[in-house]
Amino acid sequence: MGAGVQRDHEPGRTLAQTLVADRRRRNRRNHAAGSGGRGAFQIVAGTSIMRPPLSSGWISGVVTGLTPDEMGLPREDSFWTGAEAGATDGATNMPKSNQSGAKMPMLKRLTILTGACVSAAMVGCNVAEPPPFDPRAMQQLERQRAGEVESRPKRPLPTTLESPFLIDEKRQTTGPATAPTTGPALESDVTVRMPLQEIIQRAVVNNLDVKVAGYAPAIEETRVTEAEARFDPTFFSNLQYQKTDREQGLFATGNARQVQSQTGVRQLLNSGGQIELRNQLSWVEPVGGGGFFTPSDQFWENEVVLEVTQPLLRDFGNEINRARITINRNNQRISLLDFRRQLEETATDIERTYWQLVAAERAVRINERLLDETYRTADILFKRRGQDVTRVQLSQANASIEQRRATLIRAKARVRDLSDQLKRLMNDPEMPVSSGVLILPANAPLEEPVHFDLQDQINTALENRFELGQQQLRIDSASVAAKVGKNNLLPQLNLIGSLGIQGLDQDFGEAVEDQLNYRNQNYTIGIQFEIPIGNRAARAIYQRALLQRQQAIEQYRNLIEQIALDVKTALREVDTTWEEMVATRQARFAAEDSLLAIEQREAGGEALTPTFVQLKLDTQERLAQARTAEVEAVSNYNIAIARLEQAKGTLLRYNNIVMEEEKLPIGYRGK
User: Fold this and answer.
1) Cα–Cα–Cα angle for 357, 358, 359, rounded to 5 degrees
2) What is the per-residue pLDDT for 111?
3) What residues form DSSP beta bridges with 243?
4) C-alpha 88: how far from its chain's center?
5) Which structural domain range is residue 553 located in?
6) At 42, is the secondary structure helix, strand, or coil?
7) In the predicted structure, residue 7 carries a pLDDT above the cut 50
8) N or C: which end of the chain has fewer CB within 10 A?
9) How many structural domains comprise the chain?
10) How far apart are CA 170 and CA 172, in angstroms?
11) Is residue 182 part of a domain?
12) Residue 375 belongs to a domain with what CATH number?
């Protein structure tokens, strides 16, 4: 697997400035067309298992639920059984000879020859070893960065009210001496402001969920290679020593020592047949006598044999025998779309977390402003104590301060939580989750209306949702299984044939020369027929394959309905959040006007009664709540747009993430 990232930015601008400007222009200009863009970078999905994927089927296993036997796929071992047992023993009727050979040198010669052939064949068995798994090394970065973060001491739990705005007759003070703490300020951390596009880019390259999903296409590609390897030639070599020692009759051939060697190549054919070419070499030395026809001298037999087996009905044809390859290739493309699904989910999570972080940071500023306003109100009350302000009004102010201080503490914690979530989604080694870096947003959210047409959005979704592509390949795989099942209804009728050329002599060289003279030729031709009575198993498999294909088609129809629902719901959410933005802004205007009216009454000299003070404090809080609701509505509006792009299957294009898949091979069956 491999992945590349490319980004272009305008000359004279920093990369971050270009990304922000591009985003704003596209948000305003391209949303109406139902598409957008954010920067430009590309993911190239490869298939090499030896290169770890940075970011990279359409069915898992046989989607029809059929095993290879049930589908009628030809088994690797179903064409040739006993091909290595072809040593002849007709040499026992050879004429006698007075030569007594050195059998051990001959045995050594055969052993060396066979060993050399095996060694040559083993060259393709070498596989590079993967690096060792070191969990401690993987943990080292998080351990190191966590050690760089200083822990903050916790304040002791108070036992009484601690506030600078208390009436204490023993304390002759005219104002607050200290201000209560609200926890560490956001600015106290190492802060990095990042645009959304940069976070998405880092996540595409480094996100571990994406990396894990990126291995699946490479794994499925090995299954394609495994299925294609059924048709690779196979080298074989056998060496056997045999000693026969048994009682003899009148016409027995006698006892003997025998060395047999077979070396050859066999291969399955796309048509369903098998071809085998082998050389059989035998050395025989008779031992003892006792029969009239017992030879007494050693001899050599050398024979070259060509054998062919070809099905004529069942298991005949390229399409039937390559069905497993077609299905595995569909699986590999399904895994690519599963990888795309993970990319979309990661991008959606980043969008949601980013805009929630925008709202959370603004909520901190709102609550800080609210707390400052409450401090000012309490300070005014404290300065007028003994006039028209009593302990009741100061207690009201103190209660509001502590409540709003707690709210601010929680708001700051949420910013840090969302920052850590973004670091987790990025998995950037420069900013691990355990580091003290605080990520803050650099982009402003979109606050302009975007108009979408329902029919156009549904049409776009039906053209781009990956689930439909996956299901189409599942249907294709089910169709392949049905064709195999139909072929299995036919009887097994095989054409078999063989041709051999034999050489025989007491000397090895003479035996080879005898073979080259083509004096001893033999051949065989025949047919094999087989069919189960009733053929019920094949009929059941075919019927099941047809039903599962129809089931896959109905699932496709169901996906269409679900996609239409997803788009319609997402589009309604965009409209709803926009109307919510309008309503919350109006509510904020009303709350601001209400607080302004109260402040004008206060400036006009109205008495600061407990009722008036409580009214002012409540109005301040309602204004802060209105402002928070507005920023949350803006955040939800931007999240809704991203979810609409996801529902349409265009979220990657919306973020200019381009997946490139290897071109389909010529003759691909996918529809």
Assistant:
1) 90
2) 52
3) 257
4) 55
5) 15-114+191-660
6) strand
7) no
8) C
9) 1
10) 6
11) no
12) 1.20.1600.10
